[in-house]
Task: structure prediction
Amino acid sequence: MPSQSALRKNLLAILTWVTYILGTLQVVRFYMASIPGIDLDAYLHGTAPLPFQKRYLPAIIIRYMLQIPPLVRFLLKHHIVLSPPARGCSLILSTIALGITGYLAVRLYRAVSPQGRMAAFVYPLLLLCTLLSYAVHVEQNTYLPYDLPSLAFFTGGLLCIYTRRFWPLVAVVLIGTLNRETTLFLICLFLIDAASVPEGEAITRWRDRFRLARVSWLRLLLLCVAWLVPELVLSRMFAGNDRSQNYLRVVENLHSLYPAAWPALLNICGYMLPFVLLLHPSIRPRRFGNYALVALPWFITMFAWGVLSETRIYGELVSLTTVAAILLIEQHMAHGAAGTAIVDAPKPAAVV
Result:
C-alpha cells in the first residue's frame, strides 16, 4: 500500500496535468471565439492575401485533417464549438500546438534553472501570457490558424539554441518557416547565444558580454539558408496573390506611439516583457538573459511591417518571457533579504 506522501504526490501530479489540459483548452477556445483574421476557405485553397497565405503549413495540415471522415463527422456533430469543420481542425491544431509549447517551455526552464524549483508555475504563467498576448485586444481581435503553431516552433527552436543542438534547430527553422517567417529571429538568437561570453568571465562593460569571434559563421550561414529556401519557395508559389495588405507600415505605426496606444503596446507577453528587458542583465545564466535582446530587432522589424498594437506579432516571445520572469522571481526568492532584491517595488503612499 502506498504511503500517504506518495499518494499525495500522485494526486498532485494528476491534478497538475488535468489543470494544464483544461487550461490549454480554455485559452484556445477563448482565443478562437473571436472572428478569423482571414477567410479560412481562401487560405486552404491558396488564394488568401499576402503575407497571410505564405504562412502555409497549417493549411496543409488542416486539408489532410478534413480528409479523415470520422474526424469530420465528429466536428459536424459538435457544431457549437467545432463547426465549420475547417475551424474545428484549426482549434484542434492550435490546442495541440499550445500543449507542445507548454511542454517545451517547462523543458527549457529545467535546462536553464539550476534547481528547477518553480517548474510547476511555468505552464500556468505561459497560458496567462498567451491569453493576454493573443486574445485580450481592443484592435485586431481576431485569430489566425498559424499563431499558436508558430509559438510551438519558436519555443522548440529556443530550447535547441540553449541546449546547443544545432541540427534539430536547422529542422525547426526549415519547417517552422513554412508556418511563419518569424523563425528569422531564431537566427538572431543563435547569434546572441554563440557570441555570449562564458559565465565565469568578468564583465566590466555592456559590450564585453559578446565576442563575435566565438560565432561559427558557417553554422549561421546554414541557418540563413534553411530560412531562405522555404521563404523563396512560398514567395514563388503565391506570387500572384493579393498584396494590398503587404506593405510598409512605418507611417501608420507612428500613431501607435501616442499615449492612447500605450496600454495595448505594453500588453506584450502579458505586460512582462518590459520588466524582463529592464532586468535582463540580472538573469542567470547570463547567456539566457542575453536572449531578451532579440526583442529589439523584433520591434524594429514589426515597426516596419506589422501593426504595433496587434500584440500577437510578438507572441513567439511568450515562452522566453515566461521562463525569464520565473528565473527572476526564483533569484529574488533565493536572495531572501529585502536588501538584496533585484528590484524594489514602489511603496504605497501613506494614508492621511
